[in-house]
Amino acid sequence: MVQAYLANVIYPNKHEDEQYKYTNDGHLLTTETYVGASVEALESGVFRSDIPCRFKIVPETIQFLIDNIDRILHQSIEVEEKLSIDLVENIAEIKEDIIQRLQHLKNVPNRLENPNIYHLDVGAMYPNIILTNRLQPSAIVNSTICAQCDLNRPNARCQRKMDWIWRGTYVPATRNELQRIQLQLENERFSFNGQLIEKRSFADSSKKGTNAANNNSTLSFHELPQETQTTIERKRLADYCRKA
Question: CA 100, 101, 102, 107: dihedral to nearest 10 degrees?
């Protein structure tokens, strides 16, 4: 993300889960995930652009591309790039060059070449999920998205129906108990210098005078960064649950 920022590359905001999500009976969820399904890898191994790989081209597929070259160019230029095909002055030369390249692939289907490496980043796939070939349900499209797809057909096989099991971790405390802890935190102050957090009650601050209470490094709970508030709150909630 830092490199993208320095290169002026636009990237989406990092997805953040809801801070407070409860079970049906009012318990705070700390984590949730889905388990049970997996996807198949086409091929596994070490791939580098300077190590030749064997490719087996399907001639029928290449012939299909040649026969539909006009429709493919129209899709690429006018639909995807939003440009008029009439603006391309050398469209005939480009078309002929593509056909020759495709014909060469068709004539020599068994090939040994250095590959071009492309990294396709799939939504909701994290490194540990990739290693286990697991796919999270948030990456599954719905019927609305499929309705907008040009490849949507009654016999389309681009989706696999999978069985999912939801798994969540929640705290024993109820919503009311969490709210009491939050009210207690609102009556406390914390010494905060970016990392160090030390609890200090209003009574302690009043004994040391108003100067201590107004110290810039001493903040009330709602003045702390949101991430710090969540950390303190979850720790206090965990301590309460262990005692109760």
Answer: 80
Segment 162-191, tens digit of pLDDT: 677 888 899 899 889 999 999 999 988 888
Residue 135, number of CB atoms within 10 A of its CB:
21
User: Under 8 Å CB-to-CB from 234, ≥6 apart: which residues?
Assistant: 30
pLDDT tens digits along 88-127: 889 999 999 999 999 999 999 999 999 998 876 655 455 5
Strands 27-35 and 165-174: antiparallel
- What's the pTM value of the predicted model, to 2 decimals? 0.44
Question: What residues pair up with 188 in beta bridges, in sequence order?
Answer: 201
Mean pLDDT of 150-156: 80
- Separation CA 56–CA 108 (nearest Å): 9
- Strands of the chain, DSSP E: 27-35, 53-56, 110-113, 165-174, 188-192, 197-201, 218-220
* Beta-sheet pairing, 188-192 with 53-56: unpaired
Long-range contacts of 237-244 (CB under 8 A, 24+ apart): 237/28, 237/171, 237/173, 237/178, 237/181, 238/171, 240/173, 240/177, 240/181, 241/171, 241/172, 241/173, 244/172, 244/173, 244/177
Of the candidates 198, 196, 179, the one whose C-alpha atom is nearest the C-alpha of residue 188 is: 198
Beta 165-174 vs 110-113: how paired, if at all? unpaired
